[in-house]
Specification:
The complex is a heterotrimer. Chain A contains 11 helices and no strands. Chain B is of the alpha/beta class. A 6-stranded mixed beta sheet of chain B has the order 6-7-8-3-9-10, sandwiched between helices. Chain B has a 6-stranded mixed beta sheet with strand order 16-17-18-13-19-20, with helices on both faces. In chain B, strands 2-1-4-5 form a 4-stranded antiparallel beta sheet. By secondary structure, chain C is an all-alpha fold. Helix content of chain C is 79%, strand content 0%. In chain C, helix 6 packs across helix 8. The chains are: A mainly alpha, B alpha/beta, C mainly alpha. Chains in contact: A-B, A-C, B-C.
Chain lengths: 353, 568, 316
């Protein structure tokens, strides 16, 4: 779960909201932030004002259409240029490319498992029981002779559905709560953030367990449970970002320029808050995968014969002494997925800085 | 650890040779495999007892030079050529272990920003004691030496201060503590890196004078790093002008200022008002024609609620009975130090904040209690330019989008006419039309401020509020922006309410001046009267703090140096 | 300061109450038919019951009262450490928990200690060591720890240290030897998170101007790290200590299941499987209580470490 603590620098730290749990931290964080608002030490860039001059060096943009001509074509091209400019530094990082490829593989294989394996996940084979990993069976076979690699890929389908659902819930609910709280402020903010604080006082896995107890077992309850448990941090980060952007002078400039709050929200606040929030969303996929596999490991997942990753690992425990791959290979697979997601999130964050 | 207590006294060379010798030094910063040179081929020698000032704008390499002298180049910094010698020892590229004995005891540092230069979780006394102990002082005497250092740095009640944490001290006091840290090591050279640029002008002057006095008393050398030629001229034996990593010119202040060889030096001189006007702050507008009033503040007061504290004060009076008026096509300069209430006054005048007492009139209409929607139509007539151009433009907007935003908000014109207006505005602020599609990140500070000005002018306002519009910019860029503002006023007849802490800057733009202190107007009237014949002590103090005057006064006193060629 | 502490204590109680209420609502209001859910969890086959029997059963478990009455009844009980009867096992929740608490407390206490030692140690070295490769390795290591599922780590440790090397027992609750693998497993993610957070915070602190001041004094890297950087850098990490401890404790559910340890975690797993509402409710209250206590301690520690907070606290 969590690398989220250290990500977009400060969701927890400077901004604990109007909060029951931690007033002194907030004060301290604010004190720190105020004290640290100084310039960095070593200015490196050589900047000179070439204001009036035409001979300016920066030239990333081709001689563009007439100024202000925000015609659809120009706008799209601009976006495309931005996209390429943003992708460039990413593609130069082999770690990122590998992680992205792996995640892409997991998604594709989860959606269309038959592309990567010819075995049916439920096809038993009496002669091939508990075979170790080989070229025929990449991850070996289980106690009924079923191909473990095929079962892992089919497990992906379930996990992707649950994870996608959970993150979707968190994004929709978290974004709404965060934007409403940050944007409207006042008592709305106080009430919402107090509720969030209480939810945060119950550790994530425990909250998920409570919800599963109430809703029962299976894919949908798990997705809802995990979605609800990752919503609070999402809401809090969003609120912090909205508050930060709201205080920016360019927002005030837009307001004094006569812009309505609606326009300011849509054109300035949301686009500029999205960066750290999107990083958190990627991280949350990793968190969700971990919690979902933990829940299914504990036996709260989809009933057999369908098997999520956690269920596979749990089943393999019975054969740990003789056939360790049954648990360890799917476990490693889950670890790699989460590691890749975290790595993608971190790279995105580093690039943004 | 123990190694800190017993420095292996590196002071081998007490012979009076130079303390620091940089020869042909080039330093670059490595980033993503590429090295960008920040300092190129710099020769600099500092002899014992000498005060040297390195002057340059941001990016000139002056701070890198200072770090090289201290042996404190960041890990990405690489010396690509040349040598550094400290007290006769070659330390070029030496590891931390070799450099460490020199720091503190041979070379002391007074850092740039006192607000962040002290460890917030350690008592003042402890932070000074660290340096004292490095000299190998007997444990029992450390306390006394700490107090002595504080006292010599001009800190009142040293015994009390030593037990306090930094956040209990004002900026000026913190800077004095940092000076105490520097002198507590009894160094032979003190490097002062923009030591006062974060402080108010009057505090600035007192601290610089104190530092210069200390240095002269003990025969310590001093290296001042500054962007302000006036500061350098007032105090240095030798001035070194840097630009883009290279030394452009160096010599005695009189030689540099009177007979500058380089165009860049001349530009810097022109940008230092006191130097270019032979010592005085000279108002540009001496003859002010009467004009109708656009904005009037009548007895405005503003109280802020304070968080509950032990002292019992529940409110803080930020403004008290302030009356101002801005006239059409003219500039009112509102001057004050930090905390004087000038920004609050501006925010009230703009309707961004409600006054506790008093009225605000715009064109004779009382807007004191007007809400956002009632005020909105009026917004077309008054606009704002922020202090910091780095945060006043949305990083995702192109220049054209930023400039056109007020037009879009007020639904002025269609797409084509807006585009035309943007081109016209870009031209007015002297930016090429091709800039329309750039984003703020692709622009320099001065260029951004031009865009912000263009945006403020988009709706053809009668009045533009300028909130310290040049204080975040380099001096030569400041000059360009001020010139632009003057020209726009002449061309468009727009009025300005100009806020600044710097009387020298105000003098260049203002027809009228009001001086604010602790929320009250100390003095107000025509610029000429306030700036040349101030009635109040505080105004005189502000005027006296403008750097460069001492040098100009010396020059005027010495008949040999009386060269009229200094002024433009 | 006493007044300030009293205020914090009152806030802590408020959080505790709120957490209890939130879980009560989720557990008792959310299910479509809470009565059926709970009764069937109790092993009764509802379809076989006559209405009279059903009524008696409901009365037995106190389920025939209006939900608000039930709420206050349960809350009143919880205040007296009476959490009612387990639905699946015919014993009181209180005795179930007090049976299993000691083993879990020992496990999590050891795990939290391991977490602190490793988290601090790795972060300290990652920012202190100057040899590039070691620095990079130490800085990257926690990312692996954060990503690996805990049950996978547990199974891997069992495979290596119990089955292959046969050094330590794979399961069980007795003796310190049975504590080694579970506590390391339990501590790992928390330690990794702490290490990541502190490494970053220490790195940021080394960029602060006051560190330049300290370096200019001629202090050694060790002195700067210990006297100047560590204290300032630990402040943001401290804020999250409550979260990390809570996280570590709750993961006992997974770890005790993996290592077949008899404790609160395993009890929780079984309670959820059996939808034993009173047990789940009690366990949540214990966890929230722990979170609140740790946060109170963090507050205290914070005001000791940061003079600014102490001043503000006294003023308030």
């Amino acid at each position: 779960m969590p690398d989220k603590i250290l990500s977009p620098k400060s969701h927890h730290v400077p901004d604990r909201g109007p909060d029951l749990v931690a007033a002194p931290e907030r004060r301290a964080a604010e004190a720190r932030a105020a004290a640290a608002a100084g310039p960095p030490i070593a200015p490196v860039a050589v900047t000179t004002d070439l204001s009036a001059a035409g001979g300016v060096t920066v030239s990333t943009v081709a001689p563009a259409p007439a100024p202000g001509d925000a015609g659809a074509g120009g706008e799209n091209r601009r976006r495309r240029d931005d996209l390429f400019a943003a992708a460039g530094p990413l593609l130069r990082r082999p770690g990122f490319v590998l992680a992205a490829l792996f995640v892409a593989f997991v998604i594709v294989s989860g959606l269309v498992p038959s592309l990567f394996t010819s075995y049916k996940p439920s096809a038993t084979s009496g002669s091939d029981k508990l075979k170790g990993p080989s070229l025929d069976h990449l991850f070996g076979t289980d106690e009924l002779g079923r191909d473990l690699f095929s079962r892992v890929l089919h497990g992906s389908t379930l996990t992707i559905k649950a994870t996608g659902g959970a993150v979707l819930i968190a994004i929709v609910a978290g974004l709404t709560i965060g934007v409403v709280a940050g944007f409207f402020g006042g008592w709305v903010d106080s009430v919402l953030m107090r509720i969030i604080d209480i939810l945060l006082a119950i550790p994530m896995l425990l909250m998920a367990l409570v919800i599963v107890t109430a809703l029962g077992f299976g894919l949908l309850p798990i997705a809802i449970a995990v979605g609800v448990t990752i919503t609070p941090t999402f809401a809090r980060t969003t609120r912090a970002e909205v508050l930060r952007v709201k205080e920016q002078p360019y927002v005030e400039a837009a307001r004094t320029g006569g812009a309505s709050w609606g326009r300011v929200l849509l054109r300035h606040i949301l686009p500029n808050s999205w960066g750290p929030v999107s990083v958190l969303a990627v991280l949350d996929f990793g968190t969700a995968v971990l919690v979902i596999s933990s829940l299914s490991f504990l036996g709260f997942g989809t009933p057999p014969p369908a098997a999520e990753w956690g269920t596979l690992i749990s089943n393999g425990r019975n054969f740990l002494i003789t056939s360790p791959w049954l648990s360890l290979l799917p476990g490693l697979f889950v670890g790699l997925v989460v590691f890749s997601l975290n790595h993608i999130a971190r790279t995105l964050e580093e690039i943004k800085r | 650890m123990s190694t800190d207590a017993a420095p292996d006294a590196p002071v081998a060379d007490q012979s009076g040779g130079p303390i620091v010798e940089l020869s042909g030094l080039s330093v670059g910063y490595r980033q993503r495999g590429r090295t960008t040179l920040a300092v190129e081929d710099v020769d600099l020698t500092i002899a014992a007892g000498e005060t040297v000032a390195v002057v340059g704008e941001s990016g000139s390499g002056k701070t890198t030079t200072a770090n090289a002298v201290l042996g404190l180049l960041p890990s990405s910094g690489v010396i690509t050529a040349g040598r550094i010698r400290i007290a006769g020892t070659d330390v070029t590229g030496a590891p931390d272990r070799v450099l460490r004995p020199f720091r503190g005891n041979v070379i002391g540092l007074v850092p740039q920003d006192p607000m962040v230069g002290l460890n917030p979780t350690m008592r003042i006394g402890g932070q000074i004691a660290e340096v004292v102990r490095r000299r190998g002082v007997d444990k029992r005497l450390v306390g006394a030496e700490v107090l002595e250092a504080l006292e010599r740095a001009g800190v009142d009640r040293p015994a009390v201060r030593a037990r306090q944490y930094p956040d209990a001290l004002s900026g000026g006091l913190r800077q004095r503590v940092l000076i105490a840290i520097a002198i507590a090591g009894h160094p032979r050279l003190i490097v002062a890196d923009e030591p006062t640029s974060a402080l108010d002008v009057t505090v600035q002057r007192r601290i610089l004078d104190h530092l210069a006095g200390l240095v002269a008393e003990t025969g310590t050398s001093l290296l001042i790093i500054t962007h302000d030629l006036g500061v350098a001229a007032d105090r240095a034996d030798r001035v070194v002008v840097m630009q883009r990593g290279r030394i452009v010119e160096q010599g005695e202040p009189a030689a540099i200022l009177l007979r500058p060889q380089e165009q860049y030096t001349r530009q810097l001189i022109a940008a230092a008002p006191a130097l270019s006007h032979a010592g005085g702050v000279v108002p540009r507008f001496t003859d002010v024609t009467p004009a109708p009033e656009v904005l009037r503040l009548d007895g405005v007061g503003k109280d802020f609620r304070l968080p509950r504290t032990a002292s019992g004060e529940r409110t803080f009076r930020a403004l008290d009975d302030v009356s101002l008026s801005v006239r059409a096509g003219q500039t009112l300069g509102l001057v004050g130090e930090s905390g004087s209430g000038k920004t609050t006054a501006l925010r009230i005048a703009m309707g961004l904040e409600k006054p506790t007492q008093g009225r605000v009139h715009l064109d004779g209409v009382d807007i004191t209690d007007a809400g956002w929607s009632k005020l909105r139509p009026l917004r077309r007539r008054f606009q704002l330019v922020h202090q910091n151009p780095y945060s006043s433009l949305d990083p995702r907007f192109t220049v054209a989008q930023s400039i056109a935003e007020p037009l879009v908000s007020f639904r002025v014109g269609d797409r084509a006419s807006r585009a035309a207006r943007v081109r016209e505005l870009l031209d007015q602020v002297a930016l090429p039309a091709a800039f329309a599609d750039r984003r703020p990140a692709e622009l320099s500070g001065g260029q951004r401020q031009r865009v912000a000005i263009a945006r403020a002018l988009a709706l053809e306002p009668e009045l533009v509020f300028l909130d310290e519009p040049v204080s975040a910019l380099d001096v030569s860029v400041q000059e360009q922006i001020l010139t632009l503002l003057l020209r726009l006023q002449t061309d468009l007849g727009v009025g300005y309410l100009f806020i600044s802490h710097d009387l020298a800057v105000v003098a260049q733009l203002a027809h009228h001046v009001a001086v604010l202190r602790a929320g009250r107007i100390v003095e107000s009237g025509p610029a000429e009267k306030i700036l040349t014949a101030p009635a109040e002590e505080h105004t005189r103090e502000l005027l006296g703090a403008v750097p460069g005057q001492r040098f100009a006064a010396d020059l005027a006193a010495a008949p040999a140096g009386a060269a009229p060629g200094t002024t433009r | 300061m006493p007044r300030y502490l009293a205020g914090r204590f009152a806030q802590a109680l408020l959080v505790l109450w709120a957490a209890y209420t939130v879980t009560f609502i989720i557990l008792n209001v959310l299910p479509s038919d809470p009565i059926t859910l709970q009764l069937s969890a109790g092993g009764a086959d509802i379809s076989q019951l006559t209405p009279a029997q059903l009524h008696d059963l409901k009365a037995h478990y106190g389920l025939d009262d209006p939900i608000v009455v039930q709420y206050f009844h349960h809350l009143w009980g919880a205040l007296h450490f009476d959490f009612g009867m387990s639905l699946t096992q015919n014993v009181s929740v209180g005795s179930l928990i007090s049976d299993k608490l000691p083993s879990t407390v020992t496990l999590t206490a050891v795990a939290v200690a391991v977490m602190l030692v490793f988290g601090l140690g790795i972060a300290f070295l990652a920012t202190y060591v100057q040899w590039g490769p070691a620095r990079t390795l130490l800085a990257r290591l926690p990312a692996v720890g954060v990503s690996l599922p805990q049950f996978f780590v547990g199974l891997l440790l069992i495979q290596v240290f119990s089955f292959s090397l046969t050094w330590l027992p794979a399961t069980g609750t007795d003796g310190w030897r049975s504590l080694v693998l579970p506590s390391i497993t339990l501590a790992l993610p928390g330690a990794a998170m702490l290490a990541q957070l502190l490494t970053r915070s220490l790195g940021d602190t080394w960029q602060e101007p006051y560190i330049v001041t300290a370096r200019a004094k001629g202090l050694s890297r060790w002195t700067i790290q210990v006297r100047h950087a560590l204290r300032n850098a630990s402040l943001p990490a401290l804020t999250l200590l409550g979260v990390l401890v809570g996280y570590t404790v709750v993961n006992a559910v997974v770890v005790e299941t993996v290592f077949s340890r008899n404790g609160i975690g395993q009890l929780a797993q079984q309670a959820v499987l059996g939808q034993d509402v009173p047990v789940v409710q009690a366990i949540v209250l214990i966890a929230a209580g722990l979170f609140v206590v740790v946060n109170l301690l963090v507050d205290l520690l914070y005001s000791l470490l940061d003079p600014r907070v102490a001043r503000a606290g006294r003023a308030a």
